[in-house]
Each structure stands twice: as C-alpha cells, then as structure tokens.
Design goal:
Layout (H helix, E strand, L loop, with lengths): L1 H22 L6 H14 L6 H5 L6 H14 L5 E6 L2 E6 L4 H8 L8 H13 L2 E2 H8 L4 H9 L3 E6 L7 E5 L1 H6 L11 H5 L7
Antiparallel strand pairs: 1-2, 3-5, 4-5
Helix pairs in contact: 2-4, 6-8
C-alpha cells in the first residue's frame, strides 16, 4: 500500500511540471525566430497581422514587430519584399518586376478605365459618400461605375445616410488596400497622383 501511495504521489507531482513545459515552449534564438516568421508569412496567401503571428510564434508582439521590420528593411532591394499591407504582413514581388512575373503566374491584372478610377478615387478620399454626391463631383451619372467597382470588390456599401431618401453610403474595401499595396487609408497618395494612374493597376 505504501508503495502504491508513493507512486501516486510522484505521478501527481510531475504532471504539473510536464503541463507547464507544454504551455511554455522554450524561446527561439533571434535567427530561428526570424526564420520562423519569414516562413509563416510566406506560407500565407493573405496578410498576417502581428497579433495573429503572436499566437503562433513563441515571442512577444514587440519582438515579432521588430524582427518583421528588420526583414522588411533587408528585403527592399530584393526581388521579393516584405511589406505591410491592409494591416498585416505579406511577401510581394518587387513592383519593378511585375510585368515579368505576370508572364509566369498567368495572373490577369485588374483593368479599370479612367472613369472607373476617377469614381474610385472619389470614394477613397471622400468616404463615406453617396452616389448623388459622387455624381455632383464628376458631373455625370456614376451608377454604372459604382456597379463595376462593387463587382471588383473595390468598394462596399457602408449603410444609408440619414437624410431624405436615405441614399446608400459607399466606402473602400480591404481588397482595395491590398490591390494598391496600402497598409491603411492614411497611406493614400495625393489625389492628383491617384487619378494619374493607368488602367493596369497590378
């Protein structure tokens, strides 16, 4: 009986330690963590936020942010760059090589006409905005342009404006940020630069 009790006590005393080891894995070295973050971002087709990476990598959000910033700086002159887009981190091909990369990726660029770009620019800089307000700025009916932008998931309906008729309010989408390589709307170029963009946005 005493032997059984002793065994039971030993088992009970070691279990919490084993559980603790599982809950708190050993910390990675800087280089190992750097490689892990590089691999995680590379494996994702969508931007990964620092918060999402913190749930996977054994490091603090500050450590992860610092290492990602380091990777971003190191990759600026490379063919593949780490960038902050739409609130997260993602690997992108260097813009200078876009036309060459498309030849092997078979990826069709998003094509927009000047009128569509103009309508998109107005929504981006004036959101939330209604169709009548867009029409007033452009001087023409913007309905067809808005339908195309909605189809391309570049704009979305935010709600209705509290005024007679309750017209729909439009704003840009997260895909808009991704397509233009923006981390947030604060990164938008000047309105003049925006409207000078060509139809091929990729």
């Amino acid at each position: 009986m005493s032997s059984l009790n002793k065994t039971s006590n030993q088992t009970d005393s070691t279990s919490p330690e084993e559980s603790s080891d599982d809950d708190h894995p050993p910390e990675f070295s800087h280089d190992h963590l750097k490689g892990l973050l590089e691999a995680l971002v590379f494996a994702s087709s969508q931007p990964l936020t620092t918060t999402e990476l913190t749930k996977i990598a054994p490091a603090s959000s500050k450590q992860i942010k610092d290492i990602l910033t380091e990777l971003k700086q190191e990759s600026q002159s490379r063919g593949v760059q780490l960038r902050e887009i739409n609130g997260g981190w993602i690997w992108c091909t260097h813009p200078a090589f876009g036309s060459f990369v498309r030849k092997v990726s078979n990826q069709k660029p998003t094509q927009l006409t000047r009128a569509q770009l103009e309508s998109l620019a107005i929504v981006a800089y004036r959101q939330p905005i209604t169709r009548p307000e867009i029409d007033e700025i452009r001087g023409v009916d913007s309905g067809p342009m808005l339908k195309i932008l909605l189809k391309h998931d570049l704009i979305r309906i935010l709600g209705k404006k509290e005024e007679p008729g309750r017209p729909l309010l439009y704003g840009t989408t997260s895909y808009f940020l991704t397509l233009f390589g923006l981390n947030s709307l604060e990164d938008l170029p000047s309105l003049h630069e925006y409207t000078q963009l060509e139809g091929d946005l990729f």
